[in-house]
Amino acid sequence: MKILITGANGQLGLELQKQLATSSEELQVVSTDYLDLDITSLNQVKAKLLYVKPDVVINCAAHTAVDKCEEDIENAYKINAIGPKNLAIACDMIGAKLVQVSTDYVFNGDVPGARREDDVTGPQSIYGTSKLLGEEYVKTFCKKHFIIRTAWLYGEGNNFVRTMLKLAETNKELNVVGDQFGSPTSTVDLAKAIIDLMQTEYYGTFHGTCEGECSWYDFACKIFEIRGIDIKVNKVTSEQFVRPAKRPKFSVLDNFMLRLYGLNSFRNWEEALKEYLA
Ligand SMILES: NC(=O)c1ccc[n+]([C@@H]2O[C@H](COP(=O)([O-])OP(=O)(O)OC[C@H]3O[C@@H](n4cnc5c(N)ncnc54)[C@H](OP(=O)(O)O)[C@@H]3O)[C@@H](O)[C@H]2O)c1
């Protein structure tokens, strides 16, 4: 099986490369990032896919700077919506499967409880609306698609865990939002789920996050507890900690579809975090 990864130098792309390299399966991996393959160019995407002829394309490329997307609207839509559309068109043309990674921010998140794959979406930010349009294009233009929505992702790269550890080096006290709830997810668990899923024909939309839930405040406290860092963490509200992009208050995802197929191997978020920080 030949697999092409886009955005391969990002957090998820790096973990996928690592796991695929040690996989026992007969897998051939072609890793690309912005410089080798700009997913916003249909010509480049078509030419690359016609040349490589992958069986599966995993799209890890995205504009993930949620606040920046609010002002960088055109690029957000180019990368998060037109990019996946180009990949969907080209994958369909060569009969390849497409794995599109999406986000909990496609939901409005005003109501408590875990969201299932068929729950009504209602993004509140440019990042969320552009990712949702990307999902719709993938569904429209590629028959053999998997959309996997994840959340609060951390791995090799910039993420909340690293931001907290960095801030702790220079601060004795931190303010962290305590009224937004989600499921911190390790790229290790997500990459494994994607590798399992891409080898099936269970096409459609999936939720893929670590089990359990917490607020950003709980997440920060757990990071410091595991690392034994003595720091005062103040729980603040979203209203006290205003950001350019509005975030959903409740964006816990239920891995309902993965469970139905017997493919939900995600660990509890605290267990995965301990391994990451070890
Ligand atoms: N991070 C999270 O908390 C989170 C939460 C929910 C869902 N997700 C989704 O999970 C997926 C993976 O996220 P991640 O955290 O691994 O992202 P990431 O670390 O930001 O990596 C994204 C990669 O895409 C590349 N890229 C940007 N524009 C591109 C283009 N036009 N063509 C090709 N590559 C391009 C980036 O390159 P440059 O660095 O050079 O720009 C970067 O290597 C994304 O679909 C994201 O929306 C992430």
List keywords for this structure.
278 residues; alpha/beta; Rossmann fold; six-stranded parallel sheet; two-stranded parallel ribbon; 10 helices; globular; binds NADP nicotinamide-adenine-dinucleotide phosphate
Question: What can be said about this structure in brief?
Answer:
41% of the residues lie in helices and 17% in strands.
Folded structure, characterized:
This protein is an alpha/beta fold and 278 residues long. The protein has one domain (2-159, 183-211, 252-267): NAD(P)-binding Rossmann-like Domain (Rossmann fold), CATH 3.40.50. Helix content is 41%, strand content 17%. It has 10 helices and 12 strands. It has helices at residues 11-21, 42-52, 66-69, 73-94, 126-141, 160-170, 187-198, 216-227, 256-260, 269-277; strands at residues 2-6, 28-31, 56-59, 97-103, 145-150, 153-154, 173-177, 181-182, 185-186, 204-207, 214-215, 232-236. A 6-stranded parallel β-sheet has the order 2-1-3-4-5-10, with helices on both faces. The longest helix has 22 residues, at 73-94. The radius of gyration is 18 Å and the shape is globular. The two termini are 33 Å apart. The model has no long low-confidence stretch (mean pLDDT 97). The structure holds NADP nicotinamide-adenine-dinucleotide phosphate.
